[in-house]
UniProtKB/TrEMBL annotation, chains A, B:
<dbReference type="GO" id="GO:0016301">
    <property type="term" value="F:kinase activity"/>
</dbReference>
<comment type="similarity">
    <text>Belongs to the ROK (NagC/XylR) family.</text>
</comment>
<feature type="compositionally biased region" description="Low complexity">
    <location>
        <begin position="18"/>
        <end position="28"/>
    </location>
</feature>
<keyword id="KW-0808">Transferase</keyword>
<dbReference type="Pfam" id="PF00480">
    <property type="entry name" value="ROK"/>
</dbReference>
<feature type="region of interest" description="Disordered">
    <location>
        <begin position="1"/>
        <end position="28"/>
    </location>
</feature>
<dbReference type="InterPro" id="IPR036388">
    <property type="entry name" value="WH-like_DNA-bd_sf"/>
</dbReference>
<keyword id="KW-0418">Kinase</keyword>
<dbReference type="InterPro" id="IPR043129">
    <property type="entry name" value="ATPase_NBD"/>
</dbReference>
<dbReference type="InterPro" id="IPR036390">
    <property type="entry name" value="WH_DNA-bd_sf"/>
</dbReference>
<dbReference type="InterPro" id="IPR000600">
    <property type="entry name" value="ROK"/>
</dbReference>
<protein>
    <submittedName>
        <fullName>Sugar kinase</fullName>
    </submittedName>
</protein>
Length: 436, 436
């Protein structure tokens, strides 16, 4: 799910302690009250309103457990009753919903070229959002300080009490060590490799920070805000690089070390350009914004006509110039994008045939303008080469929010983590936000 | 996980009723005694010998539940006590093990060119095995009759009482509808598409038959009989075609319709030969035995030197001729295999980068002689292009039993299914085998 190229590190950096540890998830088989509560909260969040009986049915917990957990959640001000369900003969059931303003979460999507910040309420609804230039040439500490300032500004402008913010989901490229909160490759610069991202941002903001892959977060966000009618699908994420994510039965596919679906670095053409990932002709080297922009820059007519900046740290802005020119009818620009889209279509076929999918969503800021063209050509590719077409319709869709789905996913990762159940934080020694 | 090419069916065949329905698995959240029993049986099978305390710890069930379930299993003659664990201060714990001869299972691996049959005891140990020519040009009914005869012969020669055979795991290429027990593509001939495979074989043998993908079964079999030290790995399966399987945390990756990891049909080279899967240059069309044999046949010197049969229904025999010639030092034959192995190495990189794996196993009858050459070149490919190499060693291994791992997996699928717990069959209306 990387969006940038990995290098073999010359000397491994020492492990960086995470100064603000996230409470551990209780192991399976030893369910505790906080974990049960987190699951119940998420069932209510997903349903909007729901009865206790339905909660018991969907969670598999007994009615007695649900009664006790819900009583605690109401006492903590996280859940309240909102009326009764229409009667079907018996006594109408009282409905529960989350107190939306009880708590909040922040999602920060970080890329070399562009970043997005989203604040959601406890129900997962967006209450504020902003976007800004990416990390570019910035040193990690400096970039995180800028991001922290933007988070503070956004919370203030939305009048969200800081004490009610559960934490931040920081989403960026992989491979990552999510436990340590670090990126494992020297992208965009060597200073970023093994830099304590979550620990630093947590210190700056005074709140817990979780790390997540951007493509995975986009999948989570798309499932939340999008109009998907399936619970199994793939995501092709294109920012300054290309990553992927897969959700199966509403669960994120995690693999062995939680760094799966590196669709940007699967080899599609043995005669393609060498990539620092070690492969020739991988998806990113053939279809990524850098490849499109490099080809546009090599065409003097196109370069001058589109006023390309040629700045590698601003490749998405140049890519957007190509996309807008293609949308205006510039045939040279269109051919470049079509070539990229055909390769991305091949990647979509690979994703479908390996993960047994019939739906792939295109997400990420690179699709802001070029999305429809990519969807069109990738759809043709999967109709030609995805095996699932033999059994049922196959579909490539554009994300309902190409720019912010990943940031929304980052906030949801926080809401669904043990952080989303304050009692769990209390037991882990965290300060419980003052609840009404 | 197909090993053959799919076609779009011109007219969909009508659904075929499965005359011998497999008992349904009890849905999650409503555990019943038989399902609990099946899990406990598999924990004992995996451990060899184990105490009740350890069973409770590994299963998550309470000590009381384990006591009750084990009492039932002992009364049914499936489990017995075999002594006591060495004391660590307290009372030595009594150890349990399966009664190996209580029940048996059969695995049948079916391919166009070669088939293998394995009988295992209740503990999953191989008690008899045979191999035979594959389906070739045979009609499905005729082929299944031949296979049924071989199964009967094998059971008789091993003195396995038929009444103690739980059932047959039939493993072959995909895509499949495992519930209906049919193959969804017209391979090897149109007569096979939608033919009631499991229903017919069940009628012939008078025992339940389950359908499973060959590559998936090879993964299950390899994990059982092999020396893998990881619970997350991929399998590249090569018989007359190429398929794949992935196991994550000891669980088979199933995808949306249980037809995942079609690694034979991911596009690796846009200039490669067209495949009926719809893609150009897919793994199977570049690296599969048919491709190797076709290139050998197009070289008159090699064709005559190797006495190639040129029979498409016997492509694995011709492939084996090329492999043996390469092993004897024939450079032309070696170059053909090396070219195939390099493409398979690219497929291994794709598998690792998408499923986040560090281990890929090569299994299937095509590796009987050529295995070491393929392992060598695929290992080089993953060391160059698999992202996991940046974090830990990446390995390509040869299956410990390239010819029979899939058949062993087929038998294990039966043992681990609800069929493996006779009480579950009883409740589904099946005749319970007479147990001592």
């Amino acid at each position: 799910m990387s969006s940038r190229l990995p290098h073999r590190p010359s000397t491994p950096a020492p492990p960086v302690p995470n100064v603000r540890a996230v409470p551990a998830v209780t192991p399976v088989g030893q369910p505790s009250r906080p974990v049960t509560g987190a699951l119940v909260l998420d069932l209510i969040r997903t349903a909007g309103t729901i009865s206790r009986v339905e909660l018991a049915s969907r969670s598999g917990f007994t009615a007695a457990t649900i009664t006790n957990v819900v009583r605690d959640l109401i006492a903590e001000g996280l859940v309240h009753e909102v009326g009764r369900a229409r009667s079907r003969g018996g006594t109408p059931r009282r409905l529960l919903e989350l107190d939306r303003t009880a708590l909040y979460a922040v999602g920060v999507q970080l890329d070399r070229c562009t970043s997005a910040i989203v604040v959601t309420d406890f129900a997962g609804r967006r209450v504020a959002a902003t976007s800004l230039r990416g990390v570019g040439r910035g040193a990690p500490g400096e970039t995180l300080r800028t991001l922290a300032d933007h988070v503070e500004d956004l919370l203030a402008s939305a009048a969200v009490p800081r004490a009610r913010v559960l934490g931040v989901g920081l989403v960026t490229h992989g491979p990552q060590d999510r436990e340590r909160g670090v990126i494992l490759t020297p992208q965009p610069t060597p200073a970023w490799q093994d830099f304590p991202l979550t620990a630093t941002l947590a210190d700056l903001l005074g709140m817990p920070v979780l790390l997540e892959n951007d493509a995975t977060a986009a999948a989570v966000g798309e499932q939340w805000v999008g109009s998907l009618d399936v619970d199994t699908f793939g995501v092709l994420y294109m920012a300054s690089g290309i990553g992927g994510g897969v959700v199966v039965g509403s669960e994120v596919y995690r693999g062995r070390t939680a760094n799966p679906v590196e669709i940007g670095h699967v080899p599609l053409d043995p005669r393609g350009p060498a990539c620092s990932c070690g492969n020739a002709g991988c998806t990113e080297s053939l279809a990524g914004p850098s490849a499109v922009v490099a080809r546009a820059g090599a065409d003097p007519g196109l370069r001058d006509r589109l006023r390309m900046s040629g700045d590698a740290d601003d490749v998405l802005a140049d890519f957007e110039r190509v996309a807008r020119a293609a949308a205006r009818g510039d045939q040279d620009a269109r051919h470049l994008l079509e070539d990229s889209a055909r390769h991305l279509g091949t990647a979509a076929v690979t994703l479908m045939n390996l993960f047994d999918l019939d739906t792939v969503v295109l997400a990420g800021p690179a699709f802001a303008t070029a999305g429809p063209l990519y969807v069109d050509l990738a759809q043709r590719a999967v109709e030609r080469g995805a095996l699932a077409r033999l059994l049922r319709p196959v579909r490539v869709r554009l994300s309902t929010d190409v720019g912010a789905a990943a940031a929304v996913g980052g906030a949801l990762v926080v809401l669904r983590s043990p952080l989303g159940r304050p009692a769990a934080r209390e037991s882990a020694g965290e300060v419980l936000p003052a609840l009404v």
